[in-house]
Amino acid sequence: MSKYWSAIVGSLTPYVPGEQPKPGSLVKLNTNENPYPPSPAVLRAIAQAADQRLRLYSDPHSEDLRAAIARHHSVSPAQAFVGNGSDEVLAHTFLGLLKHDAPLLFPDVTYSFYPVYCKLFGIPYQPVALDDSFSLRVDDYLRPCGGVIFPNPNAPTGRLLPLTEVARLIKGLPDVPVVVDEAYIDFGGESAIPLVADHPNLLVIHTLSKSRALAGLRVGFAIGQADLIEGLNRVKNSFNSYPLDRLAQAGAQAALEDTDYLKRNCEAIIATRERMSRALSDLGFNVLPSAANFVFAHHPQRDAGELASALRARDFVVRHFRAPRIEQFLRISVGTEAQTDALIDALRGILSSPSE
Question: What's the CATH fold of domain 40-258?
């Protein structure tokens, strides 16, 4: 600990991202990246934007990108906010909308950045236990609080809260902000964005990292009524008035406009997810229902940490969380068809050998 640190730094437990191994023979199924490349239209747009204009600052308001987001989701540009990945959008949201005297509520098993941001920004919070099947119970949230945030589908469980239940939660807490983090919604859920028109307390956050295969471009966005977006802009413009570079804006806009590519990509991943879930079940795993581009599974006769290590020895990287309630689960990203076949073959070999 350095004597030059601010007081808060020593008390922080930073978020630990999934391992990013160096290029090689490893099959990387630990960070929910898309196994397929981005739309060719994205690559063309980035190439076209990589010209002499790079000497100039990018559009600080990302007007063309926000217009594309608005067209895609049938809202006005004033209802759209963009940032460097959904992580930055979330950070601005925590500071701009979720810092209140009453505690923020979110699931006890969820995206581990949430408590990190709470501690960083001094936000009181209370985790709310998921039920025994790792499902969110809306009634548990209908109580005095400073706000609610949850991923839908949830991470790392992959479970989806039906839109009717999302709407019931929003209606039940009209006086506090409700933030729905929809990073994985394109893989099997129904977005809450249409609810924004009738609910001034609702903010919905998306990323282009998952379904649009742009994790390396770092683009996220939020949609809410204009006054919520204005609050986020006040935070952004006090921190970084040029959040998205020229190439990111061009690529993101192209990705949003290529809806046919998005549909084909998601359909392929969903089909592989369902096939992988069935194969894991046949091997004796208990697999939670997933609406994301990953599955969450445990084997009742094998330790999850040992399975993860055995897979690593066979060149497969999956995510093992050493956390309460989920220490015996593995989160496995959906890869290509070939990667999935190879993973199942590896697990079959591991499970047939008592020494692994």
Answer: Aspartate Aminotransferase; domain 2 (3.40.640)
